Please model this.
Amino acid sequence: MNPKPPAALPRRDFLRHLAVGSSVLGLGPTLMRASGAPASAPAAPDLARRAYSGPNLVIVRWGGGARRKESIEAGTTYSPFLCHELLKRGTLYKNMEITKLEGLNTSHGEGTLNIMTGHYDRYKDIENGFLRTRFEPKVPTIFEYMRTAYDVPDYQTLIVNNENRPDEEFYNFSNHLGFGLNVRSQTLSLYRYKTYLFQKQLAEGKLPEKELKEKRDQLAKWRKADARAAGKDEMPPKMEEFWMNWRGHYGDTGFVNERGDRLLTQLTIRAMTELKPKMVMVNYTDCDYVHWGYLDHYTRGIAIMDEGLRQLVAAVEADEAYRDNTIFAVIPDCGRDNNPYVDVPCQHHFNSRSSHEIFALLFGPGIAKGQVVDKLCDQSQLVSTLGKIMKFETASAESRVLEEAIA
Ligand SMILES: [Zn+2]
Model:
Protein backbone atom coordinates (compact mmCIF):
# COMPACT_ATOMS: atom_id res chain seq x y z
CA MET A 1 0.00 0.00 0.00
CA ASN A 2 1.06 3.57 -0.47
CA PRO A 3 0.53 5.70 2.59
CA LYS A 4 0.20 9.35 1.71
CA PRO A 5 1.50 12.22 3.81
CA PRO A 6 -1.28 13.67 5.91
CA ALA A 7 -2.58 16.88 4.31
CA ALA A 8 -1.14 19.05 7.08
CA LEU A 9 2.39 17.80 6.63
CA PRO A 10 4.65 18.59 3.68
CA ARG A 11 6.18 15.47 2.23
CA ARG A 12 9.65 16.02 3.63
CA ASP A 13 8.30 16.70 7.14
CA PHE A 14 6.23 13.58 6.86
CA LEU A 15 9.32 11.58 6.07
CA ARG A 16 11.11 13.11 9.02
CA HIS A 17 8.33 11.89 11.25
CA LEU A 18 8.90 8.44 9.84
CA ALA A 19 12.56 8.67 10.65
CA VAL A 20 12.00 9.54 14.25
CA GLY A 21 9.24 7.17 15.16
CA SER A 22 9.27 4.54 12.43
CA SER A 23 5.85 3.65 11.23
CA VAL A 24 2.71 1.68 11.47
CA LEU A 25 1.13 3.21 8.42
CA GLY A 26 -1.73 2.28 6.26
CA LEU A 27 -2.93 -0.79 8.05
CA GLY A 28 -6.05 -1.72 6.16
CA PRO A 29 -8.97 -3.69 7.49
CA THR A 30 -8.13 -6.84 5.55
CA LEU A 31 -7.07 -9.71 7.72
CA MET A 32 -3.73 -11.39 7.39
CA ARG A 33 -3.57 -14.98 6.28
CA ALA A 34 -4.64 -17.33 9.01
CA SER A 35 -1.34 -17.88 10.72
CA GLY A 36 -1.96 -16.74 14.27
CA ALA A 37 -1.35 -18.46 17.55
CA PRO A 38 -1.43 -22.24 17.57
CA ALA A 39 -4.50 -24.02 18.82
CA SER A 40 -2.66 -25.46 21.79
CA ALA A 41 -0.04 -23.44 23.61
CA PRO A 42 3.34 -24.95 24.45
CA ALA A 43 3.83 -25.97 28.04
CA ALA A 44 5.07 -23.39 30.53
CA PRO A 45 8.76 -23.69 31.30
CA ASP A 46 9.42 -26.27 33.98
CA LEU A 47 12.06 -26.07 36.64
CA ALA A 48 14.10 -28.95 35.25
CA ARG A 49 15.17 -27.22 32.07
CA ARG A 50 18.31 -28.59 30.52
CA ALA A 51 21.64 -26.81 30.58
CA TYR A 52 22.44 -25.35 27.18
CA SER A 53 25.62 -26.60 25.50
CA GLY A 54 24.97 -25.75 21.85
CA PRO A 55 26.41 -22.85 19.85
CA ASN A 56 25.97 -19.23 20.85
CA LEU A 57 24.03 -17.00 18.51
CA VAL A 58 24.58 -13.43 17.34
CA ILE A 59 21.76 -12.03 15.19
CA VAL A 60 22.74 -8.81 13.45
CA ARG A 61 19.75 -6.80 12.30
CA TRP A 62 21.25 -5.24 9.23
CA GLY A 63 19.35 -2.00 9.31
CA GLY A 64 17.30 -0.12 9.80
CA GLY A 65 16.47 -1.17 6.33
CA ALA A 66 19.24 -1.99 3.84
CA ARG A 67 19.20 -3.06 0.22
CA ARG A 68 21.07 -5.99 -1.26
CA LYS A 69 22.78 -3.59 -3.63
CA GLU A 70 24.86 -1.77 -0.99
CA SER A 71 25.31 -4.87 1.16
CA ILE A 72 26.00 -8.12 -0.69
CA GLU A 73 26.58 -7.06 -4.30
CA ALA A 74 30.32 -6.85 -4.91
CA GLY A 75 30.31 -3.97 -7.44
CA THR A 76 28.20 -1.58 -5.36
CA THR A 77 28.74 -2.59 -1.74
CA TYR A 78 29.48 -0.20 1.11
CA SER A 79 30.10 -3.12 3.44
CA PRO A 80 33.37 -4.68 2.27
CA PHE A 81 33.84 -6.93 5.29
CA LEU A 82 30.40 -8.49 4.92
CA CYS A 83 30.61 -8.79 1.16
CA HIS A 84 34.21 -9.82 0.55
CA GLU A 85 35.13 -11.57 3.77
CA LEU A 86 32.08 -13.03 5.45
CA LEU A 87 30.09 -14.30 2.49
CA LYS A 88 32.71 -16.93 1.78
CA ARG A 89 32.53 -18.15 5.37
CA GLY A 90 28.88 -19.12 5.31
CA THR A 91 25.62 -19.62 3.41
CA LEU A 92 24.04 -16.60 1.74
CA TYR A 93 20.35 -16.55 0.91
CA LYS A 94 20.50 -13.83 -1.69
CA ASN A 95 16.81 -13.93 -2.63
CA MET A 96 15.17 -13.74 0.75
CA GLU A 97 11.99 -11.66 0.87
CA ILE A 98 9.44 -10.20 3.20
CA THR A 99 6.30 -11.72 1.76
CA LYS A 100 3.74 -9.29 0.41
CA LEU A 101 0.78 -9.59 2.71
CA GLU A 102 -1.91 -6.99 2.99
CA GLY A 103 -1.52 -5.01 6.20
CA LEU A 104 2.12 -6.00 6.70
CA ASN A 105 4.27 -2.90 6.53
CA THR A 106 7.91 -3.11 5.44
CA SER A 107 9.26 -1.16 8.35
CA HIS A 108 11.64 -1.63 11.24
CA GLY A 109 9.31 -2.74 14.02
CA GLU A 110 7.53 -5.23 11.84
CA GLY A 111 10.73 -6.55 10.26
CA THR A 112 12.37 -6.92 13.66
CA LEU A 113 9.41 -8.92 14.92
CA ASN A 114 9.37 -11.06 11.75
CA ILE A 115 13.00 -11.90 12.49
CA MET A 116 12.42 -12.49 16.21
CA THR A 117 9.22 -14.54 15.97
CA GLY A 118 9.52 -16.27 12.60
CA HIS A 119 5.99 -15.20 11.92
CA TYR A 120 4.34 -12.48 9.85
CA ASP A 121 1.62 -10.56 11.54
CA ARG A 122 -0.23 -7.30 11.39
CA TYR A 123 0.75 -5.01 14.24
CA LYS A 124 -0.83 -1.93 15.67
CA ASP A 125 0.65 0.58 18.07
CA ILE A 126 -0.85 -0.33 21.43
CA GLU A 127 -1.64 3.31 22.18
CA ASN A 128 -2.78 4.08 18.63
CA GLY A 129 0.07 6.56 18.43
CA PHE A 130 0.66 8.33 15.14
CA LEU A 131 3.69 6.84 13.39
CA ARG A 132 4.60 4.87 16.46
CA THR A 133 5.55 1.22 16.63
CA ARG A 134 4.95 0.20 20.20
CA PHE A 135 4.06 -3.36 19.27
CA GLU A 136 3.71 -6.45 21.38
CA PRO A 137 4.74 -9.76 19.84
CA LYS A 138 1.76 -12.09 19.64
CA VAL A 139 3.74 -15.32 19.31
CA PRO A 140 6.94 -16.24 21.18
CA THR A 141 10.24 -14.64 20.30
CA ILE A 142 13.30 -16.77 19.64
CA PHE A 143 14.58 -15.72 23.08
CA GLU A 144 11.49 -17.12 24.77
CA TYR A 145 11.77 -20.40 22.86
CA MET A 146 15.34 -20.77 23.98
CA ARG A 147 14.68 -19.95 27.62
CA THR A 148 11.68 -22.28 27.67
CA ALA A 149 13.80 -25.16 26.42
CA TYR A 150 17.00 -24.47 28.34
CA ASP A 151 18.19 -23.18 31.66
CA VAL A 152 19.60 -19.91 30.34
CA PRO A 153 19.19 -16.80 32.51
CA ASP A 154 17.56 -13.68 31.06
CA TYR A 155 20.81 -11.70 31.17
CA GLN A 156 22.31 -14.20 28.73
CA THR A 157 19.61 -13.54 26.13
CA LEU A 158 20.07 -9.93 25.08
CA ILE A 159 18.64 -7.43 22.65
CA VAL A 160 20.91 -4.46 21.98
CA ASN A 161 18.88 -1.42 20.98
CA ASN A 162 19.44 2.01 19.53
CA GLU A 163 18.55 5.03 21.63
CA ASN A 164 16.40 6.45 18.85
CA ARG A 165 13.96 3.56 18.83
CA PRO A 166 12.25 3.58 22.21
CA ASP A 167 9.34 1.54 20.88
CA GLU A 168 11.68 -1.40 20.36
CA GLU A 169 12.37 -1.49 24.08
CA PHE A 170 9.20 -3.52 24.47
CA TYR A 171 9.89 -6.42 22.14
CA ASN A 172 11.48 -8.54 24.88
CA PHE A 173 8.60 -10.91 25.34
CA SER A 174 5.35 -11.94 23.73
CA ASN A 175 1.77 -12.10 24.90
CA HIS A 176 1.60 -15.76 24.02
CA LEU A 177 0.12 -18.20 26.49
CA GLY A 178 2.82 -20.20 28.27
CA PHE A 179 5.57 -17.72 27.34
CA GLY A 180 6.03 -14.05 28.19
CA LEU A 181 7.64 -12.23 31.09
CA ASN A 182 9.07 -15.33 32.82
CA VAL A 183 11.13 -16.23 29.77
CA ARG A 184 11.87 -12.70 28.61
CA SER A 185 15.12 -11.41 27.19
CA GLN A 186 16.93 -8.40 28.63
CA THR A 187 17.90 -5.24 26.76
CA LEU A 188 21.07 -3.21 26.55
CA SER A 189 20.43 0.37 25.50
CA LEU A 190 20.86 3.91 26.72
CA TYR A 191 17.23 3.82 27.76
CA ARG A 192 18.02 0.95 30.16
CA TYR A 193 21.18 2.64 31.34
CA LYS A 194 19.29 5.84 32.12
CA THR A 195 16.70 3.82 34.07
CA TYR A 196 19.52 2.39 36.17
CA LEU A 197 21.35 5.70 36.47
CA PHE A 198 18.32 7.77 37.48
CA GLN A 199 17.40 5.26 40.18
CA LYS A 200 20.90 5.43 41.59
CA GLN A 201 21.00 9.22 41.42
CA LEU A 202 17.69 9.46 43.26
CA ALA A 203 18.97 7.10 45.95
CA GLU A 204 22.20 9.06 46.25
CA GLY A 205 20.30 12.38 46.45
CA LYS A 206 23.31 14.47 45.44
CA LEU A 207 21.73 16.36 42.55
CA PRO A 208 19.76 19.61 42.91
CA GLU A 209 16.10 19.05 43.79
CA LYS A 210 14.89 20.30 40.39
CA GLU A 211 16.96 17.70 38.59
CA LEU A 212 15.90 14.96 40.98
CA LYS A 213 12.28 15.79 40.34
CA GLU A 214 12.78 15.61 36.58
CA LYS A 215 14.38 12.21 36.94
CA ARG A 216 11.68 10.98 39.27
CA ASP A 217 8.99 12.07 36.78
CA GLN A 218 10.85 10.49 33.88
CA LEU A 219 11.21 7.19 35.71
CA ALA A 220 7.52 7.15 36.57
CA LYS A 221 6.71 7.74 32.89
CA TRP A 222 8.95 4.89 31.76
CA ARG A 223 7.52 2.55 34.35
CA LYS A 224 4.04 3.30 33.09
CA ALA A 225 5.12 2.69 29.51
CA ASP A 226 5.86 -0.97 30.21
CA ALA A 227 2.54 -1.88 31.78
CA ARG A 228 2.92 -5.60 31.05
CA ALA A 229 5.97 -5.77 33.29
CA ALA A 230 4.90 -3.25 35.94
CA GLY A 231 5.82 -4.36 39.43
CA LYS A 232 7.31 -7.64 38.15
CA ASP A 233 10.31 -6.35 36.32
CA GLU A 234 13.13 -5.82 38.76
CA MET A 235 16.48 -5.42 37.07
CA PRO A 236 18.41 -8.67 37.70
CA PRO A 237 21.57 -8.22 39.82
CA LYS A 238 23.77 -9.17 36.87
CA MET A 239 22.31 -6.36 34.77
CA GLU A 240 22.72 -3.92 37.67
CA GLU A 241 26.35 -4.95 37.90
CA PHE A 242 26.79 -4.44 34.16
CA TRP A 243 25.41 -0.90 34.37
CA MET A 244 27.38 -0.17 37.53
CA ASN A 245 30.57 -1.05 35.65
CA TRP A 246 29.40 0.96 32.65
CA ARG A 247 28.81 3.97 34.86
CA GLY A 248 32.20 3.49 36.47
CA HIS A 249 33.84 3.57 33.06
CA TYR A 250 31.76 6.09 31.11
CA GLY A 251 30.32 8.24 33.91
CA ASP A 252 26.97 10.00 34.15
CA THR A 253 27.12 12.47 31.29
CA GLY A 254 26.54 10.26 28.24
CA PHE A 255 29.26 12.22 26.42
CA VAL A 256 32.04 9.67 26.75
CA ASN A 257 30.50 6.54 25.29
CA GLU A 258 29.86 6.06 21.57
CA ARG A 259 26.49 6.97 20.07
CA GLY A 260 24.26 5.36 17.46
CA ASP A 261 25.30 2.00 16.04
CA ARG A 262 28.85 2.34 17.30
CA LEU A 263 27.39 2.31 20.80
CA LEU A 264 25.52 -0.92 20.00
CA THR A 265 28.80 -2.56 19.03
CA GLN A 266 30.44 -1.23 22.18
CA LEU A 267 27.61 -2.53 24.39
CA THR A 268 27.62 -5.95 22.73
CA ILE A 269 31.36 -6.47 23.05
CA ARG A 270 31.31 -5.40 26.69
CA ALA A 271 28.39 -7.75 27.35
CA MET A 272 30.30 -10.66 25.81
CA THR A 273 32.98 -10.17 28.44
CA GLU A 274 30.76 -9.45 31.42
CA LEU A 275 27.47 -11.28 30.83
CA LYS A 276 28.49 -14.02 28.37
CA PRO A 277 25.19 -14.04 26.44
CA LYS A 278 24.24 -17.24 24.63
CA MET A 279 21.90 -15.34 22.33
CA VAL A 280 22.20 -11.71 21.38
CA MET A 281 20.42 -9.61 18.76
CA VAL A 282 22.12 -6.38 17.72
CA ASN A 283 19.55 -4.02 16.24
CA TYR A 284 21.59 -1.72 14.03
CA THR A 285 19.72 1.36 12.89
CA ASP A 286 22.00 4.12 11.60
CA CYS A 287 21.34 3.79 7.88
CA ASP A 288 17.74 4.77 8.53
CA TYR A 289 18.87 8.39 8.87
CA VAL A 290 18.39 8.49 5.11
CA HIS A 291 14.82 9.50 5.94
CA TRP A 292 16.28 12.97 6.40
CA GLY A 293 16.90 13.00 2.69
CA TYR A 294 20.63 12.48 2.20
CA LEU A 295 21.81 9.34 0.51
CA ASP A 296 25.16 9.41 2.25
CA HIS A 297 23.40 8.98 5.60
CA TYR A 298 22.40 5.59 4.27
CA THR A 299 25.70 4.54 2.78
CA ARG A 300 27.66 5.83 5.77
CA GLY A 301 25.29 3.91 8.06
CA ILE A 302 26.03 0.73 6.14
CA ALA A 303 29.77 1.32 6.48
CA ILE A 304 29.36 1.85 10.24
CA MET A 305 27.42 -1.41 10.53
CA ASP A 306 30.07 -3.20 8.51
CA GLU A 307 32.78 -1.96 10.85
CA GLY A 308 30.62 -2.99 13.82
CA LEU A 309 30.18 -6.44 12.36
CA ARG A 310 33.94 -6.70 11.84
CA GLN A 311 34.49 -5.83 15.49
CA LEU A 312 31.87 -8.33 16.67
CA VAL A 313 33.45 -11.13 14.66
CA ALA A 314 36.90 -10.16 15.98
CA ALA A 315 35.57 -10.15 19.57
CA VAL A 316 34.11 -13.63 19.08
CA GLU A 317 37.37 -14.92 17.63
CA ALA A 318 39.38 -13.45 20.49
CA ASP A 319 37.26 -14.99 23.24
CA GLU A 320 37.52 -18.68 24.12
CA ALA A 321 33.91 -18.77 25.26
CA TYR A 322 32.76 -17.81 21.75
CA ARG A 323 35.50 -18.87 19.33
CA ASP A 324 34.42 -21.79 17.07
CA ASN A 325 31.17 -21.99 19.00
CA THR A 326 29.14 -19.03 17.74
CA ILE A 327 26.75 -18.71 14.85
CA PHE A 328 26.07 -15.36 13.21
CA ALA A 329 22.89 -14.50 11.31
CA VAL A 330 22.98 -11.22 9.39
CA ILE A 331 19.58 -10.15 8.11
CA PRO A 332 17.94 -6.80 7.26
CA ASP A 333 14.68 -5.80 8.91
CA CYS A 334 13.53 -4.52 5.51
CA GLY A 335 14.86 -3.43 2.13
CA ARG A 336 14.56 0.03 0.60
CA ASP A 337 13.15 1.62 -2.52
CA ASN A 338 15.18 1.61 -5.74
CA ASN A 339 13.66 4.58 -7.57
CA PRO A 340 16.52 7.06 -8.28
CA TYR A 341 14.20 9.92 -9.33
CA VAL A 342 12.55 10.74 -6.03
CA ASP A 343 13.24 13.72 -3.74
CA VAL A 344 14.12 11.53 -0.82
CA PRO A 345 15.87 8.33 -1.88
CA CYS A 346 15.78 4.88 -0.35
CA GLN A 347 12.50 4.95 1.58
CA HIS A 348 10.75 1.74 2.54
CA HIS A 349 7.16 2.58 3.38
CA PHE A 350 5.68 2.53 -0.09
CA ASN A 351 5.40 -1.20 -0.62
CA SER A 352 7.92 -1.15 -3.46
CA ARG A 353 9.31 -4.43 -4.68
CA SER A 354 12.81 -3.71 -3.41
CA SER A 355 11.63 -2.81 0.07
CA HIS A 356 10.58 -6.45 0.33
CA GLU A 357 13.89 -7.74 -1.03
CA ILE A 358 16.37 -8.69 1.66
CA PHE A 359 18.96 -11.44 2.21
CA ALA A 360 20.34 -13.53 5.04
CA LEU A 361 23.84 -14.70 5.73
CA LEU A 362 24.50 -17.47 8.23
CA PHE A 363 27.99 -18.50 9.23
CA GLY A 364 29.65 -20.36 12.05
CA PRO A 365 30.07 -23.95 13.17
CA GLY A 366 27.66 -26.34 11.46
CA ILE A 367 26.83 -23.87 8.66
CA ALA A 368 27.80 -24.70 5.07
CA LYS A 369 30.62 -22.47 3.83
CA GLY A 370 30.91 -20.53 0.60
CA GLN A 371 27.40 -21.35 -0.50
CA VAL A 372 25.03 -19.01 -2.30
CA VAL A 373 21.40 -20.08 -2.42
CA ASP A 374 19.31 -18.54 -5.22
CA LYS A 375 15.88 -19.82 -4.39
CA LEU A 376 13.21 -17.51 -3.04
CA CYS A 377 12.82 -17.77 0.70
CA ASP A 378 11.27 -15.84 3.57
CA GLN A 379 12.41 -13.62 6.41
CA SER A 380 10.11 -15.68 8.62
CA GLN A 381 12.19 -18.83 8.06
CA LEU A 382 15.15 -17.78 10.18
CA VAL A 383 13.69 -18.70 13.58
CA SER A 384 12.86 -22.32 12.71
CA THR A 385 16.29 -22.69 11.10
CA LEU A 386 18.05 -21.43 14.23
CA GLY A 387 15.75 -23.55 16.40
CA LYS A 388 16.79 -26.63 14.45
CA ILE A 389 20.49 -25.81 14.78
CA MET A 390 20.24 -24.90 18.48
CA LYS A 391 17.76 -27.69 19.20
CA PHE A 392 14.67 -26.01 20.56
CA GLU A 393 11.03 -26.05 19.48
CA THR A 394 9.66 -23.07 17.55
CA ALA A 395 6.00 -24.11 17.46
CA SER A 396 4.41 -20.84 16.34
CA ALA A 397 7.09 -19.90 13.80
CA GLU A 398 7.07 -20.59 10.08
CA SER A 399 7.96 -24.28 9.88
CA ARG A 400 9.98 -24.27 6.64
CA VAL A 401 13.67 -24.45 7.53
CA LEU A 402 16.53 -23.00 5.47
CA GLU A 403 17.92 -26.51 5.01
CA GLU A 404 20.79 -25.62 2.69
CA ALA A 405 22.61 -23.74 5.43
CA ILE A 406 22.85 -26.74 7.73
CA ALA A 407 26.07 -28.56 6.85
ZN1 LIG B 1 12.86 3.85 8.35
The longest strand covers residues 90-97. Residues 18, 22, 64-65, 108, 288, 291, 348 surround zinc ion (CB under 6 Å). Confidence is low (pLDDT under 50) at residues 1-45.
